[in-house]
Write a structure and sequence with these properties.
365 residues, alpha/beta, eight-stranded mixed sheet, 7 helices, 18 strands, 25% helix
Length: 365
């Protein structure tokens, strides 16, 4: 087994690889690094195992999780579908770290990755500085909730919150709630909030597209290819869900039939008491819930100047085109749980080749 965070790699040490993030993508990468015998450290800013799952709202039970794929080498089986996903997956990740000796350093905040000495990367953190030959960035999106801006937003006298801070439906009992967003989270929020709220209103920028029927391997590959094409062009990645449409399951059908999922176009402005449209119509609200998605948490990579003019980081596979030492796992087409697993293995294969070239003195560019 390779050395890791608590088995010989000290603060400020030189390592072959730093992994940033210990969610699905980070743990998958660490697993493959360990199997390859590559010296590495895993840094995670969360307080405990579980990646972003540990922050999910209690009403998102494991049985409602969309497409959770097991980590490499250890299945997740026998979980109670009625337990909160935050508990089930948090316990699974903790058991996985223990089984494979992936002793993650946490909580550690990575503030910047910049050019270091001798062709190495300098990783600056709240726990010191590491020097690495390569970096696997597996920070996901949860830490960067996207809040769109609309005229009058600051005047709203009610409560505004984002999916990232969604507490579950109980806090909305008797309230008038506007849910903004066209993704799976918005639909889930609406379906459960509508059972306790006085009134719900759903608004989206574009008409939602519902997908009926099965979604097989061929459809999955096609959807991932669309996301991959944007990343290859250096554009900010879209979620896979954004190109697959919303699954038309029994609960969604019921929401459509009842009118809960009767969508309105997004408002033109926000008033102190709700929202207003250009045609003069208004909706009063006590709460605006922004289910408007997330952006890639990659600001700490800014000193390396990896972004393209289109605003994204162009990658080939998992490798940043502007710096082959940097791999982004769980970014764009590998943002799904199964995609993160595969990308972790692919990144480690490329890093092995990079390290081998360095050891024989071959050029790395």
């Amino acid at each position: 087994m390779t050395r890791n965070a608590d088995a010989g790699v000290g603060v400020g040490a030189d390592v072959d690889v730093v992994v940033v993030g210990a969610g699905q993508a980070g743990l998958s990468s660490a697993y493959h690094l360990a199997r390859a015998g590559i010296d590495h450290v895993v840094l995670d800013h969360a307080p405990r195992p579980g990646g972003a799952w540990q922050f999910r709202w209690p009403s998102l039970t494991y049985g409602r999780v969309h497409g959770m794929h097991a980590l490499p080498g250890m299945e997740l089986s026998g979980a109670d579908p009625l337990r909160p996903s935050s508990e089930v997956i948090g316990e699974y990740f903790a058991a996985y770290e223990d089984r494979f000796g992936l002793r993650v350093r946490r909580p550690v905040d990575v503030s910047a990755v910049r050019e270091g000495d001798g062709g190495r990367l300098r990783v600056e953190t709240s726990a010191g500085v590491w020097s690495a030959r390569a970096l696997i960035n597996a920070t996901g999106t949860w830490d960067r909730p996207f809040w769109p801006r609309y005229p009058g937003q600051e005047t709203f006298r009610g409560r505004q919150l984002h999916t990232a801070n969604y507490p579950g439906p109980q806090e909305f009992t008797g309230a008038r709630v506007i849910v903004v967003g066209g993704g799976t989270s918005a639909v889930q929020h609406l379906l459960e909030i509508s059972e306790v709220a006085a009134e719900t209103t759903w608004v989206t920028r574009r008409p939602p597209v519902f997908r009926d029927g099965s979604f097989g391997e061929a459809e999955g590959r096609a959807a991932v290819a669309l996301v991959d094409e944007r990343v290859r062009r250096g554009l900010p990645p879209q979620s896979v869900v954004s190109v697959t449409g919303l699954p038309l399951n029994e609960a969604v059908r019921a929401g459509l039939d009842s009118g809960v999922l009767d969508r309105r176009p997004v408002f033109d402005g926000i008033t102190p008491t709700g929202a207003a449209w250009a045609d003069g119509s208004r909706v009063d609200a006590d709460v605006i819930l922004w289910a408007t998605g997330f952006r890639a948490a990659v600001d700490h990579l800014a000193p390396l100047r990896l972004r393209e003019p289109g605003g994204g980081i162009r990658v080939e596979g998992t490798r940043a085109v502007r710096d082959e030492r940097v791999h982004l796992v769980g970014y764009g087409p590998s943002a799904s749980t199964i995609g993160a697993n595969r990308a972790g293995g692919a990144a480690v294969r490329e890093i092995r080749r990079l390290l081998a070239r360095e050891r024989v003195g071959a050029p790395t560019a």
